[in-house]
């Protein structure tokens, strides 16, 4: 489980860098709504990943103590994704919908890339 916390710590660092790039893109390019959508989606995507890490901790403790394991918070993460899309749809002049959806998936894309790099370093 410490490995998941390490990955989440790296994800937060990447998120702050990505959000800084989104702010620069929002301020200095004509694609402000696209960068705002990516930032919004990445924020909610990282929140979803944080929920997953917390629920995995609870799940791991429950299994190790022999108790019944609780859910992994799928409904909460799904609701968070719906909230991000609802914000983008209700404010289309500020947030681009497709870039918001892409931003929602960025933490998971970073997770896959990080695992590929980790496996490549081991071999």
Can you tell me about this structure?
The chain has 4 helices and no strands. It is mostly helical. It has one domain. Helix 2 crosses helix 4 and helix 3 packs across helix 4. The radius of gyration is 16 Å and the shape is flat. The relative contact order is 0.16.
Looking at this protein, list some descriptive labels.
single chain; 123 residues; mainly alpha; 4 helices; 85% helix; 0% strand; ATP_synth_I; ATP synthase subunit I
Itemize the secondary structure elements and their pairings:
Elements: H1 2-28, H2 32-65, H3 74-90, H4 97-122
Helix pairs in contact: 1-2, 1-4, 2-3, 2-4, 3-4
Question: Short summary of the structure?
Answer:
85% of the residues lie in helices and 0% in strands. It is an all-alpha fold and 123 residues long.
Please estimate the helix content: over 70%
Number of domains: 1
Q: What structural class do the secondary elements suggest? A: mainly alpha
Mean pLDDT: 89
Main sheet makeup: none
Q: What is the CA-CA span between the terminal residues?
A: 22 Å
Number of helical segments?
Answer: 4
- Give, in order, the helices and strands: HHHH
Rounded radius of gyration (Å): 16 Å
pLDDT < 50 stretches: none
- Let me know the number of strands: 0
What is the global morphology?
flat
Q: In percent, how much strand structure appears in the residues?
A: under 5%
Main location: membrane
Keywords: Cell membrane, Membrane, Transmembrane, Transmembrane helix
InterPro entries: ATP_synth_I, ATP_synth_I_Bacilli
Membrane topology: Multi-pass membrane protein
